[in-house]
Amino acid sequence: MSDIIATNKQAFRDYFIQETVEAGIELRGGEVKSLRAGHISFSDSFARIDKGQVFLYNTHISPYEQASYLNSEPVRVRKLLLHRKQIVKLDTQLSQGGLALIPLKAYFNSRGFVKIELALGKGKKFFDKRDDIKRREVDRKIRQTMKSRNR
Q1: Helix, strand or coil for residue 72?
Q2: Which residues of 21-46 are buried (b: 16+ CB within 10 A; e: fewer)?
Q3: CA separation (Å) from 90 to 42, 80, 120, 147?
Q4: Tens digits of pLDDT across the chain (151 residues)
Q5: What is the DSSP secondary-structure string of 18-34?
């Protein structure tokens, strides 16, 4: 069983999610305790492959208050831990173009390690977003009519 720390709701709004991968994350000092308190933000976060390694950018982990001088920068580049074969596979898919690596959620796995769920996403256009909104509204109206008929 995993405890979800945070989800990136913007990713589902802005991208078509194609494939997901679980990755470990390299943390320092009080960052784990800050994550246990739920102090993480994925706004404008993305991952990039550089020299055969995967790095996470723009993820804000608030400093843990009791860690004093051991705190590191809230927004820094963090290394993600993946197997070499996974990195090569992601790199080939990203090189085809039009795809981005986006963090979807952060969670603690059953062993207590922090994991990041990464996704290969293709950016949505404005009209795609409007279609999703229309679809949600139609589904909501259908549910309302079904509910009123059942009464």
Answers
A1: coil
A2: bebebebeebbbebbeeebbebeebb
A3: 21, 13, 8, 44
A4: 578 999 998 888 888 899 999 999 998 878 888 888 888 999 889 999 999 999 999 999 888 877 777 677 888 999 999 999 999 999 999 998 889 999 999 999 999 899 999 999 998 887 777 888 888 899 999 999 888 887 6
A5: EEEEEEEE---TTHHHH
Does pTM top 0.90 for this prediction?
A: no
Report the alpha-carbon distance of residue 109 to residue 107 in Å, rounded: 6
**Distance between CA atoms of residues 88 and 91, nearest Å:** 5
Q: Is 150 helix (H, G, I), strand (E, B) or coil?
A: helix
Length of the chain as a residue count: 151
Q: Hey, what CATH class is 3-124 in?
A: mainly beta
Closest CA relative to residue 54, chosen from 88, 28, 27: 88
- Cα 79 to Cα 27: distance, rounded to the nearest angstrom: 8
How many C-beta neighbours within 10 Å does residue 58 have?
15
Amino acid at 89: K
